[in-house]
Amino acid sequence: MDPKLISIIGAVIAVSFGAIGPAFAEGRSVAAAMDAIARQPEAAGSISRTLFVGLAMIETMAIYCLVIALLLLFANPYVG
Amino acid sequence: MQASPLEHTVLFQIGPVPIARPVVTTWAIMLVLTGGAWLLTRRMKLHPDRPQAAVEVIVCGMLAQIESVLRRDATPLLPLLGSLFIFLFVANLSAVLPGMQAPTAKLETPAALALIVFGSVHYFGVRARGLAGYLASFARPKLIMLPLNLFSEVTRTFSLMMRLFGNVMSGEFVIALVVSLAGLFLPIPFMALEILLGVIQAYIFTVLATVFIGAAIGSGERG
């Protein structure tokens, strides 16, 4: 099989499956933060600040997958 | 379709050094920010006029944000973190101007910023705890955590770089894709989303740098 074709398929798989886990995790963390803000509205400031930092951490996983996909597409060492 | 996000257009050369487009954009941003700061703080008064009051609101707001994360006096950290935030804010939003491209959408600018954070974490850590105390903090809570702690120093700097680069670059990439597919009005919501993302990424980068420095200083409550 053509290595270019394989890398395109690999990039698609990396992004599509790599987005599943962070999507679930972000959904859960936002739901938990909403719950906490609903219970304790006066703590909304510190909760949302911590939430943003946590979301950034989670999002990094998806971004790693994106970087792998970009490497496969644009800087692939195996395609001449 | 736009070219690879990992390559550069070289604009001109100074001697043997090729000067790429993000560098020129960064210089322009530095010029605007430095000149603006110089103009605004040239004649400071005890009873501020409007521009000075606006700048004071920005500076005091950033100071309050940093202090609420660190829970200690943040005045020595304000120059670094404040200029980091303002630079990232302007750099991420500079892609909104026609013909401009955000310098953070190329890999090297986030790498340089992450290296600055990496260096200043150790600088502030050593300054707050002394060299021996700072080195000993890597072996906490147990000595067996030492390789993990050292490893996480590298990976979190790497992920700081990759997060900024990936977010800004993917935003520009999506806009370029939509423009090439569907022309005139459809990219506008994506561009609005990109403005929001740029602000959030500037905030997140600064807050993470604050948290890392706070952990190195040893503020106790967060880390």
What key attributes describe this structure?
heterodimer, A: 80 residues, mainly alpha, 84% helix, elongated, B: 223 residues, 7 helices, 2 strands, 69% helix
The oligomerization state is heterodimer
Element pattern of chain A in H and E: HHH
Number of strands of chain B: 2
Shape of chain A: elongated
Shape of chain B: globular
Calculate the terminal CA-CA distance of chain B, rounded to whole Å.
43 Å
Overview of the structural elements:
The complex is a heterodimer of chains A (80) and B (223). Chain A is mostly helical and 80 residues long. Chain A is 84% helix and 0% strand. Chain A has helices spanning 3-18, 20-39, 44-74. Chain B has seven helices and two strands. In chain B, strands 1-2 form a two-stranded antiparallel ribbon. In chain B, a hairpin with a 2-residue loop joins strand 1 and strand 2. Chain A binds chain B through residues 45-46, 49, 52-53, 56, 59-60, 63-64, 66-67, 70, 73-75, and chain B through 4-7, 68-69, 159, 162-163, 165-167, 170, 200, 203-204, 207-208, 211.
Brief overview, please?
Chain A has 80 residues and is an all-alpha fold. Chain A has three helices and no strands. The mean pLDDT of chain A is 88.
Give the helices and strands, then pairings.
The complex is a heterodimer of chains A (about 80) and B (about 220).
Chain A: H1 3-18, H2 20-39, H3 44-74
Helix pairs in contact in A: 1-3, 2-3
Chain B: E1 10-14, E2 17-20, H1 21-40, H2 50-70, H3 78-93, H4 108-129, H5 131-136, H6 146-182, H7 187-217
Antiparallel strand pairs in B: 1-2
Helix pairs in contact in B: 1-3, 3-7, 4-6, 4-7, 6-7
